[in-house]
Amino acid sequence: MTAPATLIDKLWDAHEILRREDGASLLWIDRHLVHEGSHHAFARLAARQLPVAEPALTFAVVDHYAPTRDRDHVADPDVARMIATLGGNARAHGLREFDLGDPWQGIVHVIGPELGLTLPGLAITCGDSHSSTHGAFGALAFGIGATEVAHVLATQTVWQRRPKTLRISVSGTLSPAVTAKDLALHWIAELGADGARGHAIEYAGPAVRALSMEGRMTLCNLSIEGGARFGVISPDETTVAYLEARPYAPAGADWPAAVAQWQGLRSDPEAQFDREIEIDGQAVAPTVTWGTSPEEALPITARIPDPATRPARKAAQARAALAYMGLEPGRPLIGVPVDQVFIGSCTNGRIEDLRQAALVLRGRKAKVPGLVSPGSSQVKRQAEREGLDRVFAEAGLDWVASGCSMCVGMNGDVVAPGKRCASSTNRNFRGRQGRGARTHLMSPAMVAAAAVTGALADVRPLLQGRG
Amino acid sequence: MAGWERHEGVAVSLPLEGIDTDQLIPARFMSAPRSAGYGGFLLHDMRFDPDGALRPEMVLNRHPEASVLVARRNFGSGSSREAAVYALADFGIRAVIAPSFGDIFAANAVNNGLLPAQVSPDAVERLIAALNGGAAPARIDLAVGTVTIAGQAIDFALDAIWKRKLINGWDDIDLTASHRAEIAGFADRRRRAAPWVWPARDVREPRAE
User: Fold this and answer.
1) CATH architecture of the domain covering A288-462
2) Does residue B57 belong to the interface with chain A, where contact is any CB pair within 8 Å?
3) For A7-27, how does the pLDDT look when each residue is reduced to its tens digit (9 = 90+)?
4) For domain A7-276, is the CATH number 3.30.499.10?
5) What are the CA-CA distances from residue A117 to residues A47, A122, A150, A369, B118 (Å)?
């Protein structure tokens, strides 16, 4: 009999090549995903004249700098150079690259799962903090910096310290129009943006089980906004059904063998976590951020907090956030006018996200301009088959190509200084969407509600009689 | 990367919570090669006004000789961009003192010889009060785990693995090379036990539409 273990511990043990006497684990990596931002790591490799250790386990994709319009003529020379550099590195090392013209191009955390590159039981790294997304499949997936990217390229391994474990159990069911995004913002507001620092999170409970793979990915994606580098959900029938027949998923006799091995990827009933948090699924409301950290989030029906009612240190922080955001304390969140909207990103750019936004927008007009960037070229084609692109266009929103786009602004899709954007993305940091940009994070349906009302709005009345 | 054990320099404080990676280096600067130097990008939008002029009142502009930065909780939260560490290191910062750090930022910092020294929130408040918006001499002893700023000696917490690494200036790729046989053995066993882990090779690629 082995001691009861958590899913996180099982995944860790399955990838630990050795442990140094000081406690550092050398982990084997099954999938390494690289993007344009990996140029520092490739430069390190080149400086040491090292090859990529496992090109067959390394995949490259253009996403952070991907233009969302007029892809045949990349106007910005910096953007063109970043994309060309990745292409050059991929060719030099024999990597499969999903470049701008590839029918499978998209955001790395969207295409990994949809191509079946992401599988339960794998260890997956990428030089991007939202790599925790892949944990939705029961994978040990985490973001790493450029030095570690270079290390994985050179050795297919990485040194890590075993994280503490935190289980977030969500009881009951989420209410209609309440999504995984709302659940994530809810727990981050409760625990703080560093609340899960040093921990790997396992999400559990009936409300998590009931989520689609898209919802689970949104939840795991946002783990890092609460400070956790890892977020996992144990695989089940939903996971298996999602993955079957995906292009890179196991095929033939490998498929049943893989599915059989995945059965063991769950925390043992008696397993001990370092921390446990319980959340009542019914208590989660449509949630929006009001400040400049994801922890500064409230139900849409709330009022903007008054710094004067907070402890001194918190008060200064809230005052600074409200000044940056251009908001008055005490006024209701509902009705705060927005200048534009954005739907997309690795957090909420999947087909289900677009369907939920379209459900609100169908037959309605947006009062403000906005951009809809599907998370991948496959998502884009699927949405077009379903006619969602027409819903967005008829509402007055721009339907563009896939990439990280206005979530991070590297490709030139930015929010102008002082402008307020309702956004389905992951960070409301100062300057994230462009210098001086004011970002409110929310679910895609809530972004759609902001579009049709021209202000922060509760999506629930807008869904009456729909879906 | 050179290891280090002691540092004597100048400390300043930035009394803010959640100085995230997007503030440490805005995304628009991240396409530059490292050889260009990242110091000018550090906290760019805090240090420069929208017209590109230096904000004279900003503490790092008043004290460009600063090498130790004191800040409030959740320093370096957010992105995995190592460029945030490059910006600090290239500006000349050797240590950041704060009650908590973003996990990925802290790992990146150690990989570049930058010390993420964790101290209690109260200790940070004492340091902020002692610095009073200005600069003061700072001394760091890594092996002992103390930082002394404006005469105040404070113990900091640092993971033992990271302390060793900072002092020795280890390069992980060299270190890992000595484990080549164990890695190859692990990969062989994994391939036998779970052949499905290796991605399918006869993937039917779609045609561009």
Assistant:
1) 2-Layer Sandwich (3.30)
2) no
3) 999 999 999 999 998 899 999
4) yes
5) 30, 10, 21, 36, 38
